[in-house]
Automatic annotation (TrEMBL):
Keywords: ATP-binding, Cell membrane, Kinase, Membrane, Nucleotide-binding, Phosphoprotein, Transferase, Transmembrane, Transmembrane helix, Two-component regulatory system. InterPro entries: HAMP_dom, HATPase_C_sf, HATPase_dom, His_kinase_dom, HisK_dim/P_dom, HisK_dim/P_sf, Sig_transdc_His_kin-like_C. This is histidine kinase. SUPFAM superfamilies: ATPase domain of HSP90 chaperone/DNA topoisomerase II/histidine kinase, Homodimeric domain of signal transducing histidine kinase. The keyword Transmembrane helix applies. GO terms for molecular function: ATP binding; phosphorelay sensor kinase activity. Its EC number is 2.7.13.3. The lineage of its organism: Bacteria, Bacillati, Bacillota, Bacilli, Bacillales. Residues 207-259 form the HAMP domain. Residues 397-602 form the Histidine kinase domain. It comes from Alkalicoccus luteus.
Length: 613
């Protein structure tokens, strides 16, 4: 056994290297501790000696300068206004503030402090005595000679003391630099030694690993990356051959199982992706979230559930949808209105159920939604059509029943107006009654027009010319005499009924004039956009309340005191007969914008109406 060569194990080699590196680092730490002690000594010397000395020297220099100025001012003013008391107050305040902030003067500056006190003694003893006996001239002479000479000597001493302290500070700073440089040099040397030692040790340890083990490891790693079915070959080491055979069998089994799982997964995903329903499954146990194609189109391919709290807090068009998606509650058929990235309004019908595993244990939630925007739009159109049909039927019947007795009343009133004297006509308010009869007739005409408008008689015309034809009539009315009109329309031929177009614009102008109380501005713009001719009707009135906008085109909906609520429904009915549309694009304080769209080409027409988006 003594003749056998002892081989270190991999663990022993690593431990030896770690111990050696630890020893080097410990030695380095001892040196750093010593260096820190030296730095502490130097910094303590600076803090306790040089810094206080510099502070007191700076204070005395400023005191010398101010005392010199104070003495000169006292001489010039014949020592008036309590010269000695002011000098004493000035000295005491400066001395007290310095002692409170920095303590007494350092012992090294005691001779300078004594000399400063001698200057003060000269003022308080000799100058004060001369002033007490009224000898200001002798006091001034004493200050200009003895005091100023002593003051200059003290100033020279302060300069010498400052030079000495500054040199000491520079010496201490040089010591700082020396300590740091020595530490850095040792650190660089130690780091180089550790690096070289680690490099040599790593090479020696790695070279001790066998090639068969390295090759087997590479093959196993290759299979583990997903290359199931790959075979390990070229293993000649007897101890590793059984292991290689077992790995090959396992690789084949993994390939068969993986292929079955992939086929089943693809089949299920194809089914989910084919559905027009967005499906979001959240597995809380695994922390996974899955989306089908419809859900990815809405949420985005890079959707992350960790972003849900931030998304739910946003004030955007998707806020309500994010809140439902992040909800922990179970719900069915919740309707939510959203605005997508294209600024299009959509309506989703959302539901959420529990996600359970094969043991019927809840492991997450299943959120699914469907876009019912088109369905809602169709339902609204059907409801609107049914309402118009019902209202039209009732209006037609009522109008016919009212028109006959109204004609009789109108005839008798006109007969009375012709036969009665003027005083009797005024007493019975015949003119007012006839005016109201005329207004009732107008309402009946609107009701009949809403119930069954005549088919448009198409002509090729320029809308600008049609609008200009009604402008003289409009501008002469009392409601519009203080309203400014702006007309800027592209001259594009349009197939339309001129009489119905005039009535549409007349209704819009009348509505705007009444909303603005007869004061303001109305602008009408028109231009071609692809296969549409778009007219924008703008006024600077107070706007339409939000509560009224949704029912704006419903019959008998009005915000005016004497309005019938039939003008806009009639305009909409006429635009529908022209295969066009009219809708409210914007309404706020100072701006109300209606948009009218006329088709320029034959074929099916889809209105660019934001209410149906």
């Amino acid at each position: 056994m003594d003749g056998e060569k002892r081989t270190w194990s991999l663990r022993a080699k690593i431990m030896a290297v770690l111990l050696l590196l630890t020893g080097l680092l410990v030695s380095l730490s001892f040196f750093f501790i010593q260096s820190l002690g030296e730095i502490h000594d130097v910094s303590e010397s600076i803090t306790e000696d040089q810094v206080p000395e510099l502070v007191w020297l700076s204070h005395w220099e400023s005191q010398v300068l101010m005392k010199e100025q104070y003495i000169q001012m006292g001489i010039q003013t014949d020592f008036c206004c309590g010269f000695i008391e002011g000098y004493e107050s000035f000295r005491d305040e400066g001395e007290a503030s310095m002692r409170e902030a920095y303590g007494p003067p350092p012992a090294q500056l005691e001779p300078a402090n004594v000399q400063l006190q001698r200057l003060d003694f000269l003022v308080f003893n000799q100058v004060s005595g001369l002033l007490d006996i009224g000898n200001e001239a002798e006091a001034a002479s004493l200050l200009e000679t003895d005091y100023m000479d002593e003051l200059e000597t003290f100033r020279v001493r302060l300069a010498a003391e400052r030079t000495q302290v500054t040199e000491m500070l520079e010496t201490q700073q040089g010591r700082f630099t020396s300590i740091i440089q020595e530490s850095l040099d040792l650190l660089v040397l130690t780091a180089a030694a550790v690096f070289v030692l680690a490099l040599v040790a790593a090479y020696r340890i790695s070279s001790g690993l066998t090639r068969p083990v390295n090759r087997l490891q590479r093959e196993l790693h290759y299979i583990a990356e997903g290359n199931y079915g790959e075979q390990i070959s070229g293993v000649n080491q007897p101890e590793l051959i059984p292991l290689a055979h077992s790995v090959n069998k396992l690789s084949e089994q993994l390939k068969r199982s993986f292929d079955l799982l992939i086929l089943d997964k693809m089949y299920r995903e194809q089914i989910l992706d084919s559905l027009p329903v967005g499906v979001v499954t959240s597995d809380e146990k695994r922390g996974e979230i899955r989306l089908n194609k419809t859900a990815r189109d809405v949420l985005g391919a890079g959707f992350n559930k960790d972003e849900l709290p931030e998304l739910a807090a946003r004030q955007d068009g998707m806020q309500n949808f994010w809140k439902l998606l992040s909800s922990k509650e179970i719900f069915q058929n919740e309707k939510v209105f959203v605005t997508n990235e294209k600024e299009e309004e959509q309506i989703f019908l959302c539901s959420q159920a529990e996600l359970v595993n094969e043991h019927r244990v809840t492991i997450g939630k299943l959120f699914y939604f469907i876009d019912i925007t088109d369905t809602e739009a169709l339902e609204q159109q059907v409801q609107h059509t049914e309402k118009l049909a019902l209202v039209g039927s009732l209006a037609a019947g009522a109008a016919h029943e009212i028109r006959n007795p109204l004609a009789v009343i109108d005839g008798f009133l006109k007969l009375m107006q012709q036969s009665l004297p003027e005083e009797e006509r005024e007493r019975f308010r015949l003119e007012l009654l006839l005016k109201e009869i005329t207004r009732i007739n107008g309402i009946i005409e609107d009701m009949l027009l809403l119930a069954k408008p005549r088919d448009p008689s198409y002509e090729e015309l320029i809308l600008e010319d049609v609008v200009e034809e009604i402008m003289p009539l409009v501008e002469r009315t009392a409601e519009t005499k203080n309203i400014a009109f702006t007309l800027d329309m592209e001259r594009v031929p349009v197939q339309a009924d001129p009489d119905q177009i005039k009535q549409i614009f007349h209704n819009l102008i009348r509505n705007s004039a009444e909303a603005m109380d007869g004061k303001g501005k109305i602008s009408i713009f028109g231009q071609r956009r692809r296969n549409l001719y778009c007219v924008e009707f703008v006024d600077d009135g107070p706007g339409i309340p939000d509560s009224t906008q949704e029912q704006l085109f419903s019959p008998f909906t009005t915000t005016k005191k004497n309005g019938t609520g039939l003008g806009l429904p009639i305009a909409e009915r006429m635009m529908d007969n022209h295969q066009g549309s009219i809708y409210l694009m914007e309404s706020q304080q100072g701006k109300t914008l209606f948009c009218l769209e006329f088709p320029l080409e034959e074929g099916p027409y889809e209105a660019d109406d934001p209410r149906l988006r």
